[in-house]
Amino acid sequence: MQFPVSRTLPTTSNQADETNQRWSAGWPAAAGETLLIVMIFFCLAGDPPPAVNEAHYLSRCRHWWNPEWCAGDFFLESQEAHPLFVASCGWLTKFCSLSAAAWIGRLATWLAIAAAWRRLCWLIIPQRGAAVLSAAVMAVLIPRTEFAGEWLIGGFEAKGVAYALVLFGLGSALGNNWNRAWLALGAGSAYHAVVGGWSTLLLFAEWVLWRRCWNGFRKMTLGLVGGGLLALLGVLPALRLAASAPVEVELEANAVYVFDRLPHHLAPLSEPAEWLAERIPRHIVGLALFASGLVTMRRLMRRNEFDGIDVDRLWQMCRFAVLALGLSVIGLTIEAMLSAKSQLLAAAILKYYWFRLADVAVPWASALVWTAIAVALVRQRRLGGLTLLVVMLALIGYGIGKPAIGRMRAPIAPADRGVLDPEAWQDVCEWARTETEPQALFLTPRSGVSFKWRAERPEVVNYKDIPQSAVDIVEWRRRVRAIYGGVDPFGAPLLVGDLGELGGQHVANVGREFNADYAIAGAWNPLSLPVAYRNRAYVVYDLRKLPTPE
To answer: d(Cα 119, Cα 393) in Å, to the nearest integer?
Structure first.
């Protein structure tokens, strides 16, 4: 399928004013639709905090603004990878609890994404309600068609802020305000170098491949330069993290990061066959939905049945999604060709998240395409349009209602879903917070993602909290293997989930090695160590009372 080529780049003030008028006309309705979109996001992701990554990001924020909080924690005292987010958003943690900061940040991020999406959608489909419908479709599609674990609507972290800025930048590009687009994408890169950086490169590639209006390049030079300078706020810290170690350490860290810790994001072909069998079919469904939407849209255009839709702008979003898919294909090719021959070389390339943007860009385009089709057919009072609208609403109701009902039945924080007994886990964390010294250092279960959040005590290492600098990544791997390393019945190495599986002598040894004061293990694996506290699921062992080894 050939995409239409635009060789003009209108940027006159009259056209910009017209675009602004189209967006601002009926601002009460725009505000109402934006709030409806936020309500949809809340139904999908309104879990009790912390979300999995909130325990990671907001703990860093609190420690950055108050270094005495969890002082001595290995992860919190590693180098910062997102300094702009921590500096500009972390101050919330000084004045309110982590849970309150999470909710404030979530609502602010969702509101920004909703406003940016409503503006973008209105430029393509100037129809009341279309933005709400398309936002619901894309929010339901992303978690059900993603391949490499990317998400858009969730907890409060740097990625959410970056995506809001990316959507605002794409909307500015659709409105032919390219200087504003590059500035917004640069700001997105400042908050998250990978999200904003790939988005910038893809939009620039779209401009080069399909517009080719080099006379307009000079007019957007200011935006490109300004956006590039903003992007340095996110790119330079990332480069500093990579340059702070010898080359051999950096290569080793890359392999740990890509193939040991995050293969589901960075090297999906290395995942087990069961994982691929679950991900690939649903991703194919998402691609088929996108492709069938393009075919249907093309057919309606030939019949002149696409009135009222800005087709050029819709094609622009589709081209952006196709380019994002191209990144995924490149990433898969790199992994397939290099991982077996040179894992170090493959990891050095794959660490840049080649699959991230396609997981969201394709649902963005699919949602806009199918919403445009539904609106065009309904305007013509076609039975097919009403049928399509009913089907879309039914799927949206199921996609939104299922997680909302599940949350009402079992309101468990996402960060606590890995533990066997969330209530007992929260109890043992509360005991640690109230009954131990602030500087007490803990060995925790590998699934204890929310320990620092709930207990406010430092950990020797947390499996979820992998640092970003090369030296710290290698040290993280050493600590994880030393503490959780075991063997399966066949003698192969593995990482256990509970310290009790490795025995009291092992816990005592690693406690002495890392100067830990306490260790938390499951009550189902009792150890012959001094007990400080116990509940129905967990036991806290007091490693300070261990006898000094001869």
So the answer is: 22
